């Protein structure tokens, strides 16, 4: 080990003694091995490093969000990030559509929506018979039903047996979705979609699904009567 690390043997011995004293390594004869505490500490360290690397990768996307945005760092561990460019402003939405078009089930939260993307989004989501559950913010819902074109899109979706739409107060400004073994967020700016992040790791998907489930518990089911103002 001293040769591999290019340090003196006394330095290695001192480091090993410190690790043994800390309870993360134990000695069996002339062999040192990690304890359960040591393995747990190493796993936690590696997870922290992955999260930090993910945050660094997503820094441009994160800069578009307010400081108090409720995003768990675990979501960015291993995430793939795409940001919009002036040259190809719609490329990010195509990444989102690519994530949802072949899904069996789609669960989404939309605090904001782009009028021009509403119909393409639902057409992509439902083209393959996907079961769709969407939660719209109350503010977004009111805007959509006040606009004839977007109101028509919502009415069409409500007639589908595979689509369920809810409304509630959404306490964050980013969009969120999960499809099977992948989750994603959409970040909006004053000029459109700023970017998205996608992640297929279990912890990230579990976090995103938990956000959806929590909001759905308090959400109101949207019906045809709600569109007509009878509820």
TrEMBL record:
Classification via Pfam families: FilR1_middle, HVO_A0261_N
InterPro entries from the UniProt entry: FilR1_middle_dom, HVO_A0261-like_N, WH-like_DNA-bd_sf, WH_DNA-bd_sf
Domain HVO-A0261-like N-terminal intervals: 2-51
Residues passing through the membrane, by range: none
Positions of the Methanogenesis regulatory protein FilR1 middle domain: 89-217
Coiled coil: none
Domain of life: Archaea
Protein name in UniProt: Uncharacterized protein
UniProt organism field: Haloferax mucosum ATCC BAA-1512
Species classification: Archaea, Methanobacteriati, Methanobacteriota, Stenosarchaea group, Halobacteria
